tRNA (guanine-N(7)-)-methyltransferase
Amino acid sequence: SDHQLAYPSSPKEMVWANHFPKYFPSAIAADGDAETKPSGKQVEVADIGCGFGGLIVSLAQKLPDTLMLGMEIRTQVTEYVEERIKALRIQHEAEGHYQNISVLRANTMKFLPNIYEKFQLSKIFICFPDPHFKARKHKARIVSPTLCAEYAYVLRPGGIVYTITDVEDLHKWMAKHFDDHPLFDRLAEEDLKDDVCVEVMRTDTEEGKKVERNNGSKFVACWKRREDPEW
Ligand code: SAM
């Protein structure tokens, strides 16, 4: 359950220094208060329902200059990813690796625009979301008309939504919702063949590995966010 979760009232309230101290170093101001220096960088990649963090851990060194945030609703799973990243940072302290990834406990179905500014993100990943098979549970799916509008709000024009699932019915559901939304254009396989992120979704997510072991299918679909229409 998520009712004890606190959300910032606006993205300006997000304290990114706790997540990315290398990029948002704190300084002690003259009055003795800790002050966070602004960083040129901001989080650009969100992994919705990141689970155990396989995707962001794998992307950390493939996109070393990009700040990436895993978002996960389960407390213990979030804590596991926090510990995983902390250990990787210590292990690779000399090279300064893994400073660009972090995790946030959040219900991504709520308040996404309180966390990210409009157009802040360049990539959103939705990897192996919970299928919620029964029709009466479909409202719990993390793709819906309302949520597509929120993804379009936080994603910049030209940004990409990546989805993967082993459940064909859910793949069709996600495809229908993004296809129907006026701000998303489906990408062709050809457009994605050199995109390292697609391979990472397939092979480096914990669910992707599980599906591989069980010889399951993996359905990938991605959309590019359009420019806002001119009024
Ligand atoms: N993406 C990971 C992967 O591919 O290995 C994990 C997939 S797992 C099947 C789905 C994850 O989404 C679970 O860890 C679950 O707790 C999380 N989740 C479900 N609903 C969520 C929500 N509303 N907000 C954040 N995380 C959520």
The pocket of S-adenosylmethionine is lined by residues 49-51, 54, 71-74, 77, 107-109, 127-130, 142, 205-207 (CB under 6 Å).
